[in-house]
Amino acid sequence: MNRPKPKLSRIAETLGVSVATVSNALSGKGRVSPELVERIRATAAELGYVPSVAGRALRTGRSGVLGLVLPNIANPLFPQIAQAIEHAAAGAGYGVLIANSRGEISTQTEAIGRLIERGVDGIVIVPRRGTRIVEAGCPIAVIDSPSTPGNTVSADHWEGGRRMGAHLRELGHRNVLLIGNNTTSNVQSDRIGGLKAGLGPNAATETLWIERLEAAGGAGCPLGLVEKVRGGVTAIATLSDLTALRALTELQGAGISVPDTVSVTGFDDLIWSSVVTPRLTTMRMDMGSIAEIAVTALVDAIEGDRRGNGGEETSGPVSAPISKVPMELVIRQSTGVAGVGSLKAKNRTEGELAS
Amino acid sequence: MNRPKPKLSRIAETLGVSVATVSNALSGKGRVSPELVERIRATAAELGYVPSVAGRALRTGRSGVLGLVLPNIANPLFPQIAQAIEHAAAGAGYGVLIANSRGEISTQTEAIGRLIERGVDGIVIVPRRGTRIVEAGCPIAVIDSPSTPGNTVSADHWEGGRRMGAHLRELGHRNVLLIGNNTTSNVQSDRIGGLKAGLGPNAATETLWIERLEAAGGAGCPLGLVEKVRGGVTAIATLSDLTALRALTELQGAGISVPDTVSVTGFDDLIWSSVVTPRLTTMRMDMGSIAEIAVTALVDAIEGDRRGNGGEETSGPVSAPISKVPMELVIRQSTGVAGVGSLKAKNRTEGELAS
DNA sequence: CTGAAAGCGCTTACAG
DNA sequence: CTGAAAGCGCTTACAG
Fold first, then answer.
1. All domains of chain B, ordered by start, with CATH?
2. With contact defined as beta carbons under 8 Å apart, do A295 and A92 qualify?
3. Do A253 and B346 touch (CB under 8 A)?
4. Chain A residues within 8 A of B87 when measuring between CB atoms
5. What is the pLDDT of residues A67-91, one digit of tens each?
């Protein structure tokens, strides 16, 4: 295994042709005779030729790598996003370099800087809430929410909220508790706005913000849901499956039945949502499409530079033909018709487990 | 923003010195007079000089990038791993390129191939279970389990299991249900072995494998835990917090109290474990240390090549001074003394919520 | 302590 | 259709 990696010139020597011809044949660009192309291809394969990315990058000025900046890699949504972006990028011939903002705004800037230093051709960023990325020295695809200025593409969070609200309204819920994390996220305000619209003018809603509750009660503190249910709430619509899970277990731990006494909904279809009891009704993003659109927009900007405006660098947020991707309502067992169970009928029979 | 990026020669021209001197000054390698170094540094900073990774890579033969291959990016443990590796790599001056095996063994090989093509200097791999990576053309750090041949570093899963088992034994549990995912994972067999050892010879154990249950009952099917509890099980020790969550909600959904009637434990301290009710007792890996050790071993192999054996490439699994990193037992509310609650005392009082 | 020169592997006009 | 040559930006012996 100590043979040096074959390079273009090895193939050229082996065949007695020039490196230029080999390069042209392999890239399919230059006009090389079909027979020669065939021989060159065969020899390259035989020798196990792998082009040097460094050589190519130096010559073309492009690295073939995209950066991915996330607000917090620990976010449970991260796997979905990373997987989708990686897949879309690989399909377009790009690699993906990860960076972590660790939730802090200064780190986000640093992360972008490190990616630039590494020579990425473009960046996909899910911005920390409240941040606005304007400049970065390379094209940027922003995935946040349609109401964020500079947003490239994202799920249609408002419409997702509306449809979830409508689902609950149709089940007869008129007294609904909304739970979000923080008030400063565009994604969350879109979802809340949509939920209220979907629930309609006849529903009473109250909104709880976890960030505030925890500021007082500490991380992981109880949300006080039992009282809310006693107070007449028949459905709890959360803005994340993590919150939904928290609500579900808090209720169950107190002997309150979901969905018989109270329905619970989430957002994002996170990993556990389909395996907990009862499975969570949620609203799923189409991360595959979002990633595809973001990466395509980025690649267009990157490769368009070369062809189009003679070296003029597109830098900063790019736009995409479609900026709102529909969400998909996933109805599972955690939602049911309002008023089926009362607070007294606390226990579910074992039979229900079998369904 | 249309100024071309300054390169080494720009600095050299500005100062009227040679590019060699600038390079030496900036890298701190050559013997350049302190004053000149200072002036060069200042000019570089002023011009906003960012070295070209392509140029450097082409010349040095190293890309400064590590690849990260995961069995399945959708794995809930992925965020922890990716974050830790990214952090350790950044500390060592390396970037991290992600690749996804999507759970398939052929894809794992392809993923490695793509990373090699991208010119990574080394690869961190969490192998798909049952796989053994021997060759890849570059140094590899394998993170799996101490009982996997070729393993570079990992958590001490067996000892983690033993301590969890001991914790349950100390709480008086003698009839314990173990739940794993699949029988072919070294990590899982280590954990199971440790659990049994920790529970001691006086405990009766039975092991359930989710993969088998789901082969019959479908994904997300009930685990039949109520019957097990009726049969006398007082504790359920799972090999993952995802399974623990599944068990917890299945029990709570059936009106069985955790931990009064039955204790539940997990592994890995996943994101939700500290916010569900009751919070999950779990065993946490020290991903920071694991990542640090893996990256250091890789970097030693990569950079040692240059200094040491004159171009001889280390290729394949590298070894590390420490290969087993201790796990940390996190005791929370999901475990309690055996026999406190009976199956009849199903409901927890609201007061418990406040704790 | 400083500089001139070679060369890493590739692609791209350009000439033939 | 094919080839000779330049050059992307850097680092590294080597010479002075």
1. 8-51 (1.10.260), 65-154+287-325 (3.40.50.2300), 157-285+329-344 (3.40.50.2300)
2. yes
3. no
4. 100
5. 999 888 778 888 899 999 999 999 9
